[in-house]
Design goal:
Length: 425
């Protein structure tokens, strides 16, 4: 034993140093991601002014450009400390006459780089999965850092704006910050622009099953339907393209263009089978950006979505995909049926078919989205059966009451948020 601490004590201390540095790195990566995901558009809902518990997260979110600069400085310090520790290990290894110098030098670097990347990914994943909760968790430890660095970041931004007038705006835009102008109260990018930017970012990871019209809502015609009856039903539905099946919706033959149906003689004579055009079939897990490119190449506007057994899961149209970027596209045949409607503070009427990701964003809550895509599917999984009308289901303090069933389908749910001062306003 040389000195007060033995070799084992030094190794334990070194491991603890690495654990602390990686924990700080995790918080920084997740903290940056959480405040980026929560756009200015949603700030008032996720961090309501009336809640005293939201004061610090709201303060940091409104000044997130200054916070990010402080976090970047802390991140640099963490990486420097990791590097110093690593070089200390290397020097000890070399001075100790360790063999295989190249392997001994590269192996620690490789391990540390992989660990840093894994911790970064873990932080980003945790923050994007539940951005509001992560932002609350890191706000209090980040507050002293923000206060300490605020004079420095003020000086930096002031000097940078004089030397490079477009630099602060470029930094803000690169992080999707869209800070407000103190004079006008307006952001660099308007609210609609901010929503559009976030939609584009999410577009690349969405899959067909998240945007398709589910099987139960698909309007389709049997190939043996009389032409006159087909005309009447199509006129009521208001669609320009209709899937045609033979006996069962799992046996879709193709798609019928309504304009072709109208060309048949007025006496109604004819066969729908002669008018059916080829339709594309795609799996549920296909990414919508890939399908959009295929639509562009094939000049088609509709595809049939099939499940793993080859059955019809739903249909997806070009309009469904474009709506993921620009929002709902409505025409004269579409009826305004909002997926979510506020009834009172903390109480909402929600359609059972509403996407869970959209519900999380709208209410600022966190629900498991790995196995299902809709609120109805989530509630089915929660109780493991078809619930009854009026039945109440509770999950992590959130109360779901089945307001209306359509057959076996959950049509409408009343959602009551816990009154903990963090409910969406």
């Amino acid at each position: 034993m040389t000195g007060v601490f033995g070799p084992m004590d030094r190794e334990v201390a070194q491991v603890l140093r690495y654990l602390i540095l990686f924990a700080v790195h995790f918080m920084i990566s997740g903290g940056i991601a959480s405040f980026v995901v929560i756009s200015r558009v949603h700030e008032d809902r996720l961090f309501p002014r009336e809640s005293w518990g939201c004061a610090i997260p709201r303060l940091l979110h409104r000044n997130r450009l200054h916070l990010f600069l402080a976090l970047l400085a802390l991140e640099a310090a963490v990486l420097v400390l990791i590097t110093i520790d690593l070089f200390g290990d290397l020097s000890s290894y070399i001075s100790g006459g360790g063999g295989g110098f190249l392997l001994g030098a590269l192996a620690p670097f490789a391990v540390i780089v992989v660990l840093v990347l894994l911790v970064s990914i873990a932080g980003l994943g945790a923050a994007t999965r539940s951005p509001r909760n992560f932002a609350y968790a890191v706000s209090y430890p980040f507050l002293p850092l923000y206060i300490l660095f605020r004079p420095v970041t003020d000086l930096f931004l002031e000097a940078a704006s004089k030397a490079f007038p477009d630099l602060p705006r470029a930094i803000a835009s690169s992080f999707f910050l869209f800070p407000e102008s103190e004079e006008s109260g307006e952001g660099f990018i308007e609210e609609n622009g901010s929503r559009l930017m976030h939609s584009i970012v999410e577009f690349g990871v969405k899959k067909v099953r998240e945007v398709m019209v589910p099987r139960i809502d698909v309007f389709a015609l049997d190939v043996h339907t009389p032409v006159e009856e087909a005309r009447e039903r199509v006129s009521e539905a208001g669609h320009s393209r209709v899937p045609v099946y033979d006996g069962s919706i799992d046996k879709i033959m193709g798609v019928l263009f309504v304009k072709d149906l109208l060309r048949i003689s007025s006496d109604g004579a004819g066969d729908l089978g002669q008018l059916v055009r080829e339709v594309q079939f795609v799996p549920e897990g296909k990414k919508i950006d890939d399908l959009l490119r295929e639509f562009q190449l094939s000049k088609k506007h509709m595809a049939v979505v099939v499940d793993e057994y080859g059955g019809t899961s739903g249909i997806v149209t070009l309009e469904d995909i474009l709506e993921e970027i620009v929002g709902e596209i409505r025409d004269e045949h579409d009826y305004e049926t909002p997926l979510i409607e506020r009834i009172s503070p903390g109480s909402y009427a929600v359609a059972g078919r509403m996407n869970l990701d959209d519900l999380e964003e709208a209410l600022g809550i966190s629900l498991p989205t790995d196995e299902v895509d809709t609120l109805g599917g989530f509630l089915y999984n929660l109780v493991d059966r078809v619930p009854d009308e009026g039945e109440e289901i509770e999950y992590q303090g959130i109360r779901f009451r089945i307001h209306r069933l359509d057959g076996q389908r959950i049509a409408e749910v009343r959602v009551e948020l816990p009154r903990d001062g963090r409910e969406a306003e």
